[in-house]
C-alpha cells in the first residue's frame, strides 16, 4: 500500500528518481528494519520496490532483470544464512550490471563480509549509513563505509 500511495502522490518523480530493490534473503523473516530502510529511501525521493521477507534468490534475479534497479538492499539477521547471502551476491554480480548493493542487519556487525570479494557491496551498520547512501543518490565512486570502518 505504501508503494501504491507513493506512485499516486509522486508519479512524475518516480520516472526521474534512482531506484532501489529491497528484500530479505530466503529464510530471513526479520523485515521491520528493512521497512524502515524503505521509508528512508522514499523520503529521499527514491523509487522503492520492497519485496519483503524470505525472498528466493531466483525471484530477486528475475526482478533485477525486469526492473533494472540502480541499487539493491539486502537484510540479513541470521548467521546461518551467510552462505545464502554469498550465493545471492554472486548471482547478482554475475549479471554484470554494476549495481550498488547495500547489506544490513545484525550479521553486518558480527562478521567480516568483505571476505566475500564481491564489488559494489556496501555494509550498513545502521540507518545513518542508509541515509548517507540515499542522500548521495547514485554515488558509485564512494563507499558508504570507509575501508577502516568495515
Short description:
The chain is an alpha/beta fold. The chain has helices at residues 2-9, 11-16, 32-43, 57-67, 82-94, 106-110, 127-136, and strands spanning 19-25, 47-55, 71-75, 100-104, 121-124. A 5-stranded parallel beta sheet has the order 2-1-3-4-5, sandwiched between helices.
What are its keywords?
150 residues, five-stranded parallel sheet, Rossmann fold, single chain, 5 strands, 20% strand, alpha/beta, disordered C terminus
The fourth-level CATH homologous superfamily is: Cobalamin-binding domain
Q: Cα distance, first to last residue?
A: 35 Å
Shape: globular
CATH class: Alpha Beta
Mean pLDDT: 84
**Low-confidence region ranges:** 139-150
Total domain modules: 1
Number of helices: 7
Report strand %.
15-25%
Oligomer: single chain
Strand order in space, largest sheet: 2-1-3-4-5
Structural class: alpha/beta
Which architecture does the CATH hierarchy give at level 2?
3-Layer(aba) Sandwich
Q: Round the Cα radius of gyration to an integer and report it.
A: 14 Å
Which fold name corresponds to the CATH topology? Rossmann fold
Q: Sheet bearing the most strands, described?
A: 5 strands, parallel
Amino acid at each position: 500500500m505504501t508503494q501504491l500511495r507513493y506512485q499516486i502522490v509522486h508519479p512524475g518523480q518516480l520516472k526521474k528518481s534512482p531506484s532501489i530493490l529491497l528484500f530479505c534473503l530466503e529464510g530471513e523473516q526479520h523485515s521491520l528494519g528493512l521497512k524502515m530502510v524503505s521509508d528512508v529511501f522514499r523520503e529521499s525521493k527514491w523509487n522503492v520496490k520492497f519485496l519483503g521477507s524470505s525472498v528466493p534468490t531466483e525471484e530477486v534475479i528475475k526482478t533485477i532483470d525486469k526492473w533494472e534497479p540502480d541499487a539493491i538492499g539486502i537484510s540479513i539477521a541470521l548467521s546461518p544464512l551467510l552462505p545464502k547471502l554469498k550465493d545471492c551476491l554472486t548471482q547478482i554480480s554475475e549479471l554484470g550490471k554494476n549495481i550498488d548493493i547495500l547489506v544490513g542487519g545484525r550479521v553486518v556487525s558480527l562478521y567480516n563480509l568483505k571476505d566475500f570479494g564481491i564489488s559494489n557491496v556496501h555494509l550498513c551498520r545502521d540507518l545513518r549509513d542508509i541515509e548517507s547512501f540515499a542522500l548521495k543518490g547514485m554515488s558509485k565512486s564512494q563507499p558508504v563505509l570507509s575501508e577502516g570502518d568495515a
